[in-house]
Design goal:
By secondary structure, the chain is mainly alpha-helical. It contains 17 helices and 2 strands. The chain has 2 domains: about 5-185, Up-down Bundle (Growth Hormone, Chain: A); about 205-400, MFS general substrate transporter like domains (Growth Hormone, Chain: A), CATH 1.20.1250.20. Helix content is about 75%, strand content about 0%.
């Protein structure tokens, strides 16, 4: 049986480790917030506020972690993140009040900023240069099942042993499973400099950003950061309030919960679509199509009401799944692989900041306008599409060109 290719090996290791990392951090409050709040004598909103602090901390840590990956490769950074994940989860299990809860989630933010998608993408790029697009897509295919795996497992452990045992179990899995997986990652070839990348990453006709002026590179970075911020805002807002939005459209509670569960499979379907039909397309095309999905679904729901609800959920999931990949591949294509980690961390700072406030802000919109709140999320997605249409790229031959033409 032939050995897997280096890219396939990287994808498998990072995909499995990322599934565990997302399941034990980002998807943890959905199951444990209520029992945590009851046991600690605080409101559930306090737990989610602490989770928002974790997101803010992750935004600050991201650029630093990316810079370390650019210099050292991802293996030591991701292994360290597993240790911090485990420590944060043990701190959660030991929390006795709001102060301990806040401190534990702040520590979790350090792990999230150095151990979730941005770090995994930067690791793949550091190892494989512009060929990392396939790996980035594969990583998201694996981790797309994080909630599918994480929510039932957390629920089962919490029912039998309580939320503290759940946190301790996830901590053990980080040390016994995720850390060894990340330890098996390859290291950059000896002799490569701090900012070096594989030769293929320098890509002459595309992906180097060399044909863009300094002003055009700044404009592309600002527009990209705005697109990513919209993507994370809408993704987090829907994750928190999708059943409520569907109910406001006339869907019964049980049906709304069932329909909302379609988001996960739709996201995976979108990533499979990107991996197959769109794998040779420009990442900008994939991003544009993905940005249209949520507004189209919102239009169908607002116009068709109850009967269009499944279509909205599927379209949102498809678009969100592809945009997750675009967050990793678009900077690689526009700017190239050199310095990818630090740049990715900086580009994601606005996204992490708006993500922290998305559940609260969109919740206000739903409370005031019901399903009409989708006008807000759809308008933001259309603004992101406009940014993608205006984004400058390096044309073949190294001359600057606008992607809008």
């Amino acid at each position: 049986m032939p050995a897997p290719s280096p890219i396939a090996r990287t994808t498998l290791l990072l995909g499995l480790a990322q599934t565990l990392a997302w399941a034990s951090s980002y998807y943890l409050p959905a199951v444990l917030a209520a029992p945590m709040a009851r046991d600690l004598g605080v409101a559930a909103s306090t737990v989610f506020a602490a989770f928002s602090v974790a997101l803010l901390v992750s935004a600050l840590v991201g650029p630093w972690a990316g810079r370390r990956i650019d210099r050292l490769g991802g293996r030591p950074v991701l292994m360290a993140s597993n240790a911090v994940f485990a420590l944060a989860l043990l701190a959660l299990a030991a929390a006795q009040g709001p102060v301990g809860l806040l401190a534990a989630w702040a520590l979790m933010g350090v792990a999230m900023g150095s151990g979730l998608y941005e770090a995994a993408f930067a690791t793949a790029v550091r190892l494989h240069g512009t060929e990392a697009r396939r790996s980035i897509t594969g990583i998201t295919l694996f981790a797309g099942f994080a909630s599918t795996v994480g929510w039932p497992l957390s629920t089962a452990i919490e029912l039998h042993g309580g939320w503290r045992a759940t946190c301790m179990t996830w901590a053990g899995l980080h040390l016994l499973v995720a850390l060894p997986l990340n330890a098996l990652l390859a290291t950059p070839a000896a002799g490569q400099g701090a900012a070096a990348v594989p030769t293929s990453a320098q890509g002459g006709a595309h992906g180097s950003g060399g044909g863009l002026s300094a002003a055009a590179r700044r404009r592309a970075a600002v527009l990209m950061a705005a697109v990513f911020a919209v993507a994370w805002f809408n993704s987090t807002a829907m994750a928190a309030h999708l059943p409520m939005v569907l109910q406001a459209s006339g869907v019964a509670l049980a049906a709304a919960v069932g329909m909302a569960a379609l988001v996960g499979p739709a996201q995976v379907a979108g990533r499979l679509l990107e991996f197959s039909l769109l794998r040779r397309a420009h990442p900008l095309l994939s991003a544009r199509l993905a940005s249209l999905a949520h507004p189209l679904g919102a239009l169908l729901l607002l116009a068709g009401g109850l009967w269009a609800a499944p279509a909205f959920v599927v379209l949102h999931g498809l678009g969100n799944g592809i945009l997750t990949i675009a967050i990793g591949t678009l900077p690689l294509w526009v700017f190239g692989a050199q310095g990818y980690g630090q740049r990715q961390g900086l580009l994601m700072v606005p996204a992490r900041l708006v993500q922290a406030g998305a559940p609260f802000l969109f919740g206000l919109a739903v409370a005031r306008w019901g399903s009409g709140a989708l006008v807000l999320s759809a308008s933001l997605a259309l603004l992101a599409l406009g940014a993608l249409l205006w984004m400058p790229l390096a044309a073949p031959g190294g001359t600057a060109a606008s992607a809008a033409r």
